[in-house]
Write a structure and sequence with these properties.
The chain is mainly beta. The chain contains 2 helices and 10 strands, in the order ββββαβαβββββ.
């Protein structure tokens, strides 16, 4: 008996640079270009057993700059995940998942973050292995958009390369998605746990 699954994901970001924090706006360097990629894993619960899934976001870009107060920020970043690429290793279940997302009309899940305060995130994530920081995302699934509170962690920096994790729960009901069931007995849970691992490269060249 196959369980229908619905999963989502999304993502968002923060990126870090070796530029000294709080430099005077007049002395601020030119904005840096961020090239990003991410891998997504998700865990779905059900009354029978839990099952995982995976996906990958499309390559994306953003800008790292300083605001009028001299703070290091990412003004806006947007990430999209193709529904067709979401995989739970069960073809029948994946097909039912795409039907739930109505992927013929809404082929991508969209996430965005605005005015990301990079200086704050660097401080909070730099507090040892357990360093974590909250980050608010706007997640859009089909025609419904909701604010989601994510937790950023596991920051690693090596030269111009940055990796970190972003974790958040998503409620199917809050996005008007009906939790799938089999024969009305085996039912997928409303909450889905999402973990996204970001890899960012910061370039100061045009």
């Amino acid at each position: 008996m196959k369980i229908r699954a619905g999963i989502l994901m999304a993502t968002a970001l923060a990126v870090f640079s070796s530029t000294p924090a709080r430099a005077a706006p007049a002395d601020a360097p030119a904005p840096a270009r961020i090239l990003g990629a991410c891998d997504v894993t998700f865990l779905v619960t059900s009354t029978l057993h839990d099952f995982p899934g995976s996906a990958r976001c499309l390559p994306f870009e953003a800008v790292l700059a300083r605001d009028a107060a001299g703070n290091l920020v990412i003004p806006s970043v947007e990430v999209e995940v193709p529904v067709a690429g979401m995989d739970t290793r069960n073809k029948s279940r994946d097909g039912q998942m795409r039907e739930m997302f109505r992927s013929d009309r809404f082929p991508r899940i969209h996430a965005a973050a605005r005015d990301v305060d990079v200086d704050r995130l660097r401080v909070e994530l730099g507090k040892g292995r357990e360093g974590k920081a909250p980050l608010d995302l706007l997640l859009r699934i089909r025609e419904v958009e909701r604010k989601v509170r994510a937790t950023e962690s596991n920051l690693k920096e090596s030269g111009e390369r940055v990796t970190f994790d972003l974790d958040f729960p998503v409620s199917l009901g809050e996005f008007d998605l009906k939790a799938p069931s089999v024969l009305g007995i085996i039912r997928v849970g409303d909450k889905v746990s999402v973990k996204t691992t970001f890899t960012l490269t910061v370039s100061r060249h045009p």
